[in-house]
Each structure stands twice: as structure tokens, then as C-alpha cells.
Amino acid sequence: MKYVDEFRDRKFAQALSGQIALAATQPWRIMEVCGGQTHTILQYGLEDLLPSTVQLLHGPGCPVCVTPLELINKAIAIAPVPDVILCSFGDMLRVPGSTGDLLQAKALGADVRIVYSPLEALNLARKHPDRRVVFFAVGFETTAPANAMAVYQAKRLGVSNFFLLCSHVTVPPVIAAILQAPNNQVQAFLGPGHVCSVMGTAEYEALCRNYRVPIVISGFEPTDLLEGILRCIQQLERGEARVENQYARAVITAGNEAAQAIVTEVFDVSDRIWRGLGSIPKSGYRLSYAFRQFDAEREFQVEAITTEESPLCISGQILRGLKKPSQCPAFGTQCTPEQPLGATMVSSEGTCATYYKFGKLPLKPVSERDTP
Ligand code: SF4
Fold first, then answer.
1. For residue range 102-141, what is the model confidence (pLDDT) as tens digits?
2. Nearest-atom index, ligand 1, CA of 310
3. Inter-residue contact 270 to 289 (CB < 8 Å)
């Protein structure tokens, strides 16, 4: 398929692999930020194409994985309210809260529905003026513009029965938090291609300057990632720390300014709790004062719900690149995709689920692997 096969070309991948081996004269640890990038790395066995000196660490860029447990519990608390239709993307329905998940709430009679966009949820609200429709909105900067647009349209159209249960997080603050940690292991980042297609590259320039770390904005296909790794290593070997844009077919320096404008109009920057990582200052969005009437936490008075994580789950350390799923004693035993203990086992982009699916450990055949 044009525009896809060329980025999965075996010979090009092998050539990049050879260049990486030549370039890396000492050990380096590189973190890929996005869950989609982790998925490609495991699916195509890219780590097998790297010299043993180059280690990939899997980052916190899976939106389902970093959604705090307390927000799942808030959704589960709102869902059974008699006049509520609770909508979200499919992955969120399976994320376990403290007392079950949204699919179980649905089985018990709650009106929980899968939608494919926030505007679909807004249309449901317009179709059912006697019901309150809640869209459970999670994600990074990539999904924030569509959610902002749904709220903006709700206000413009005078729809008063549409609400957002919102957990938006942003990438640069979590990169800073990883780098500030005393036990940080990351020396360079493959930057988040999709996020940067919306937000541009300016925030990453500041990270490179402040922390002396190379960041290569990378795509999601096998040769995108190998080229990103090569460029990271070349910078590390030269002692450089700057932003490079490997994903130039999708990312421009300024990003998508119209998308940024709607996000700024509807949301304020706020502190956010990241599952496994705790509270990170100014690391997300909340509805601004002008749009507070659409805030589901305020409407249903669930702001006070707080929860504790399972002591078994080490996803916080995995999301910081400190451990791999194989080092979790529950992996593949108490915790499987069918019965997940933590969110990183639920989402298709979660590191634990990806390891399980692609047989990184001897639990499943590598039947779906398709090496470039
Ligand atoms: S395998 Fe399960 S319990 Fe272990 S870190 Fe991953 S999600 Fe948490």
C-alpha cells in the first residue's frame, strides 16, 4: 500500500539497523513516548534490530493507561444515574475501577454506549433532551481539539444536557517529570508524532534546552522509529541536545493553529493526576470558567471521589521506563488482557498488553509479528 509499505521496507530497515550499530559506540537508553510507537516496536520486533548497547524504554503515552483510577470510579458512579447516557471510546469501558468496570455497569442496567467521536455524543444529547449525556473524554493533545469543539458547539447550540467527564493530559510536563526524577534513566526521546502534528515543536525545543536531552519527533511505522533512534544516537554521540523532526510528512513547526485555538478557548491548563505517576503540575486541561456548566464532575458532584491503586501493579515504574512488564510478578498470571489489574494491560496501546499480545515473554506465540 502506497505511503505505508515504503515505511515497512525490510531492506531500508536493515540498512538503518546497520547504521545504528555503527553509530552507537557506547550504551544509550532511549524512550519512545507514545503507546502507538511501543506497539510498532513490539509488533515488528524492532528491538531485535538494535545492538545490545541500545535499550528502548517504553513511555507514558497511552491515554487510557494514565487515566487515574479515581476518574474511572467517577464514571462508574455516574453511569447508573437513571437519566444518564454515558458515552466513551471502547477501550475505556474495560478499564477496571475499584468495583468493576463500565461494561459491568452496563450489564447491571446502566445506559453505557460506545461512540466514535465526541460530536456523536453531542448529537445523542440533542436527540434525547430529557436525558443527560456524559462523554468520558480522555486523551492527550491529539484528542483535545475534538472534545473542545463538542463543548464549544454545545454552548453555541444551547445544548444544556451534554457534559464532559474530562481527563486530558499533555506530554511536555510528563517528559519534564521523568527527567527531573532522581532515578531517571532516559537519555533521549522519540517524540510524539501525532501530538506534535497538533501542537508543533516549540515546547520540545524548551525541553531540549532546559534538560540537555535530544528529542526526535518520530512517526509510527518501523522505519520511522529506526530513523528516529539513529538520529537520537547521532546526537547523543556528538553531545548535542536539540529537536529534530523525523515525522515531517505530518508535523510542521507551528502545528495545527486552528486546533490549538479551540483548545485554548475551551480549556484551561491545570494540574493533573497521572495513573502510576501521581500529580504533575500544569500537565493537563480542565474546562475553563466560561464552559464550567458542561463539567460532569460539577454536575454530578463526584469531585470528592478518591481511590488507592492496587499494590500489586507496578505500572507507574513501567510508565517511567524504570521497569518492563516482565518484572511485574502479576504479568500473565493475576493480570491478563482478559482480567486486567492495571490500565496498562487494558488498552491496545498499553505496554503490558502489547508485551502480552506480541509474545515478548513466552506466554503467546508471536503469530502476529511481521518483521520488516
Ligand atoms: S502486568 Fe498488570 S499488574 Fe503488572 S504492571 Fe502491568 S497492568 Fe500492572
1. 999 999 999 999 999 999 999 999 999 999 999 998 899 9
2. 3
3. no
